[in-house]
Amino acid sequence: MRSTQPKDLPGDGSAEAVRQYYDRFAEQEEHRLTKDIPGRVSFDIHRRFLARHIKPGWRVLEIGAGPGTFTVALADLGAQVVVADLSPVQLALNAQFVAAAGAEHAVERREVADIRDLSAYRGGDFDAVVAYGGPLSYAFEQEQRAMAELVRVVRLGGVVLASVMSLWGTWRARLPGATALELHHGTAVGDRVLSTGDLRHVPGMEHVCRMFTWAETVALVAGSGAQLIDGSASNWASLHDLDFLAGLETEPSRWQQFLDREATACAAEGARDGGTHILFAAVRGT
């Protein structure tokens, strides 16, 4: 397992905090997309997004790969994957999970890497880069640098697929908790989070990240010189009425119909701020 992490990046030192958080989070990350209905729907939307844009035989860098949920999905699509993550613990879990799923044949190697500095990879090394689960949301003031790195390492015409944490969708999905935090810390804290998307403004918050709006995501891609070709929310109708959805999930044909309609809703431009994550696809031009 090779390390490509930068020794001395500028910034506030949050990379180490993120690494420690996901080292501690360990196996919980494996179950994040399976433990409840919003997670399972989010996985389905992310998987469909991969299937639209990844071709068999492509060489893919998966940055922020975590325990391997999407590594297996990439293997199922016929991709060859370089697996990278900031957390050594997550990389070890990735090896276990991917092997158990019978997908290790698709993994070229695993290594520790920071999304803000992919200088260990040559420009144009990959057909695609996948940065699912929000690694760009941990780059903070360096998100434009990180996005430029994702674009640099794909070939001309190559695709960057990523998801970032969604500001308004998260606020909608977590409204009771967000309201409780604001009552505890004051309205000014809530106002700062909603105006910046930055959870570092919440005192004592263990899991800090930067949440984006769809408009900010569009600007992030434009600033990298890539061309935005697709976008989606990770959830829409699946964030509420969970008791009803639990019953629907027991009926395979009706559940599949719901997932198809949910995917259509999430892709609508007016809904892209409405899920817990925002997905986008961008192509590297000349």
Walkthrough of the structure:
- The chain has 286 residues and is an alpha/beta fold.
- Helix content is 44%, strand content 18%.
- The protein has an eight-stranded mixed sheet with strand order 1-4-3-2-5-6-8-7, with helices on both faces.
- The chain has one domain: 3-Layer(aba) Sandwich (Rossmann fold).
- The protein is built from twelve helices and eight strands.
- Keywords: Methyltransferase, Transferase.
- One of its GO terms (molecular function) is methyltransferase activity.
- It comes from Streptacidiphilus cavernicola.
Produce the secondary structure layout.
Blueprint: E1 2-3, H1 14-25, H2 28-31, H3 37-53, E2 59-63, H4 69-76, E3 80-85, H5 88-100, E4 107-112, E5 126-131, H6 143-152, E6 154-165, H7 167-173, H8 175-185, H9 187-196, H10 214-224, E7 227-233, H11 242-249, H12 252-267, E8 277-283
Parallel strand pairs: 1-4, 2-3, 2-5, 3-4, 5-6
Antiparallel strand pairs: 6-8, 7-8
Helix pairs in contact: 3-12, 6-10, 8-9
Number of helices: 12
By DSSP, the count of extended strands is: 8
Q: Give the low-confidence spans.
A: 1-13
Our count of domains comes out at 1
Outline:
By secondary structure, this protein is α/β, with parallel strands linked by helices. The protein has helices at residues 14-25, 28-31, 37-53, 69-76, 88-100, 143-152, 167-173, 175-185, 187-196, 214-224, 242-249, 252-267; strands spanning 2-3, 59-63, 80-85, 107-112, 126-131, 154-165, 227-233, 277-283.
Main attributes?
globular; 18% strand; eight-stranded mixed β-sheet; alpha/beta; Rossmann fold; 286 residues; single chain
